[in-house]
Structures are given as C-alpha cells and as structure tokens.
C-alpha cells in the first residue's frame, strides 16, 4: 500500500542506524522499531514480521524470548565510561547507585537536605550567587510562564532595563479579524462549559514580554551544525524596534509596543560559529 511504499522509499538508501542512549529504550520500542525497519528494508527471511517481535513463552527458546535477534543487529556499541556533565561527586555517586537500583540510606538523607522546607536543609541566601541566577525546572506550563514573567521583571528592576510588552496580532490573509472571528479565536481557549483549557502548550502566547539582558532558550532545532539547537541558552543583547514604532519615553519602566520589533539580537552561551 501507499504507507508501505513510503516507508520503503525512506529506508531504501539507509545503510546503518545510530541509536543514542540505547539503555533508556524499552524492549517494546525495539519491537516497533524493528518491525518498521524490517518492512522498509524488505527483509527476505522475515518479509512481514519484525526482527524481534512478541514471543510465545511456551514455544520459543530463551534466546527468542529475550530478543536476541534484534540485539545481534548492533555492530558497534559505544559505552560511556565517564560522565562529564555532572561535576558534583556526591550527586554523581547518587546517580550511579540509582541507575542500578542500589540507592543507600545516605543518598536519601542527601535528597531530604535538598528540600527547602526541610529542617535539615542548609540555610540558603537566594539573593546571592549562584542561587540568585539559578534556573528552575517547572512541571506545570502555567507556573513556568508565571515564573518567567516574574524573573524577567525582577531582572528589569535590578538592571534598570525597559520591559517591552508585545501583543499578538491575529490576522487572516493579512487583514484584521472581524468581531465574529475574534470571538471564535478566543473561544478556542475554553471548553463548552466555559472552563479554560489546560493543555495549551503548543499554542503561541497572546502576550510576550522581552528585555535586554533577558535569558532565552531555543526550543527547536534552528541550525544543528552551529549548535543552535533545542535547549541552547543565551541572552538578549539588543532589541531593534519597528521603524513605525511611535517614540517611547526612555524613563518608562514598562513599554507596550504598537508593533512587533524589527528583530532581536541574541548572544548564545555556546555555538560553533
């Protein structure tokens, strides 16, 4: 069928496949991956089955049950012997024990000391480095947005930088929306009973706040050869306003722009350029 033909066309000239962090891949994923490759490469000995597929514990051998055939497809395996990303010996020791399910009592005591509200947590001054410049991992999208806005405003107060507010400009074929179209766009954010939808991660924000010196992060692969990839961090060094932007008061702490900036200059912390 058409799907099979597309799959075979994709895999036709591919000679090998590199899998990063293979230890984090489950056997069920191997099953799906193997089946797709088997169809794509048109394996003669198993034309319609995967190299490894769910087995029958009553019939198949032990080698078949553990998926030996798919693991034999690997020719070269690179084992990471030294972790360079983690420099703290205590934390690295915890990660090594956690990997093999051998966490000890002193590891749990160490984790309890990291909880800010714990009486065993060392006294921490969040107004001094490195805590004043620390990044937080936020599990909730809404909380992350609120924290980013708060941190940005704190940065502006501390550096006397102007905070620019950019409002989204919805349009259809370069024309402004009608009242009915504005209502339809606004209604997308709410359910039928009037509650705000929770899952809005993929939507563009209706309002963006920016400032010189603000920290930013790349969220998609822009240029992999230059390390401008998902997760790359940097700082806004300059904001060039739109030529039609009305004059602004240089002493105003917060400025609501009438037009989107012409462009924003960002200096990444690390690139290959």
What does this structure look like?
This protein is α+β, with helices and mostly antiparallel strands. Helices cover 30% and strands 12% of the residues. Among the domains are: 2-71, no CATH class; 131-168 and 206-268, no CATH class. The chain has helices spanning 2-11, 27-41, 62-65, 68-71, 89-99, 105-113, 141-159, 179-187, and strands at 163-167, 171-172, 175-176, 207-210, 215-217, 233-240, 254-256, 263-268. A 3-stranded mixed beta sheet has the order 4-1-7. Strands 5-6-8 form a 3-stranded antiparallel beta sheet, with no helix packed on it. Helix 1 packs across helix 2 (27-41). It is extended, with a radius of gyration of 27 Å.
The helix/strand series, from N terminus to C terminus, equals HHHHHHHEEEHEEEEE
Individual helix count: 8
Q: Into which percentage range does the β-strand content fall?
A: 5-15%
Structural class: alpha+beta
Q: How are the strands ordered across the major sheet?
A: 4-1-7
- How large, in whole angstroms, is the Cα Rg? 27 Å
Mean pLDDT: 78
Tell me the overall shape: extended
Protein name: DNA helicase
Quick rundown:
It is built from eight helices and eight strands. It is an alpha+beta fold.
């Amino acid at each position: 069928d058409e799907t099979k033909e597309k799959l075979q066309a994709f895999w036709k000239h591919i000679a090998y496949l590199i899998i990063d962090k293979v230890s984090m891949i489950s056997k069920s994923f191997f099953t799906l991956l193997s089946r797709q490759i088997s169809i794509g490469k048109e394996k003669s000995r198993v034309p319609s089955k995967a190299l490894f597929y769910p087995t029958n514990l009553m019939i198949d051998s032990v080698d078949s049950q553990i998926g030996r055939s798919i693991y034999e497809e690997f020719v070269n395996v690179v084992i990471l012997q030294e972790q360079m990303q983690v420099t703290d010996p205590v934390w690295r020791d915890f990660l090594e024990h956690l990997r093999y399910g051998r966490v000890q009592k002193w590891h749990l005591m160490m984790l309890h000391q990291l909880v800010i509200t714990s009486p065993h947590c060392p006294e921490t001054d969040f107004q001094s480095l490195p805590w004043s410049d620390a990044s937080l991992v936020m599990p909730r999208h809404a909380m992350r947005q609120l924290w980013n806005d708060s941190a940005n405003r704190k940065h502006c107060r501390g550096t006397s930088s102007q905070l620019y507010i950019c409002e989204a400009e919805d349009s259809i074929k370069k024309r402004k929306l009608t009242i009915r179209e504005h209502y339809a766009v606004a209604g997308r954010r709410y359910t039928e009973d009037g509650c705000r939808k929770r899952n809005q991660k993929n939507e563009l924000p209706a309002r963006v706040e920016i400032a010189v010196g603000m920290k930013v992060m790349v969220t998609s692969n822009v240029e992999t050869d230059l390390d401008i990839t998902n997760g790359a961090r940097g700082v806004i060094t300059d904001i060039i306003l739109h030529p039609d932007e009305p004059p602004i008061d240089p002493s105003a702490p917060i400025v609501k722009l009438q037009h989107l900036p012409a462009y924003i200059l960002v200096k990444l912390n690390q690139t290959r350029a």
